Structures are given as structure tokens and as C-alpha cells.
Task: structure prediction
Amino acid sequence: VQLQASGGGLVQAGGSLRLSCAASGRTFSPSVMGWFRQAPGKEREFVASVSWGGGITAYADSVKGRATISRDNAKSTVYLQVDSLKPEDTAVYYCAAARRLGVSININDYGSWGQGTLVTVSS
Result:
């Protein structure tokens, strides 16, 4: 499956962004979808994950309560809404797909990755 992330940009602290990730190519299902991010000089880290049906989600503590992951399987698209953005949210955000059930916070479970979209939060 090919993944294309979009929606990044420059946002002031306290603002919101909605990232999208469109899948194409091989079947979008069944798959767990996740968002990860990588800040300059840091390792890629888990942000959020959603199950195939959308009923199960998982979030990193750093975004819990501020982020919402969702998916529209009819459109083969997964979304990440992040509110109350902080400068420490600045990173390249990647979407990824894992051929498994449930959700996963483990980066090694994800075999397909998008190209990333840059989110910059100014203070």
C-alpha cells in the first residue's frame, strides 16, 4: 500500500491542524493505521493508532486529550486532528500501516510508510 500524508504547515501555539493520509495501491484493509512523528535530532516516536473498524484507538501520553485519530475506509484515508498545539509538537509527521488487528504503538509493526508532512508550531 502507498501512503500519502498531507495537511502539515506552520501554526501558532494553541492552534489546530488536521493531517490526512490517503492510501492507494494494495488493499487498505485489514490494517491498523498509525501516526508517528520525528523531531529534528530525535528518534521517530508513536503518536496515535486506530484499528481497522475505528473503534479502538491509542495515543501517546504527549498528545492524549489533544489528538483524535480517525479513519474513513470508504475513502481509504486516515486523519489526525491535533488541538492546542505546542512548540514541542513540531516534527515531521508520518502515517503508517500495519497488517494486524487491534492497534499498535510499536513502530516495528508498521511495514508501510508515507513520506511525511512537516508541522511547525511557533510560540
User: Anything to note?
Assistant: The longest strand covers residues 17-24.
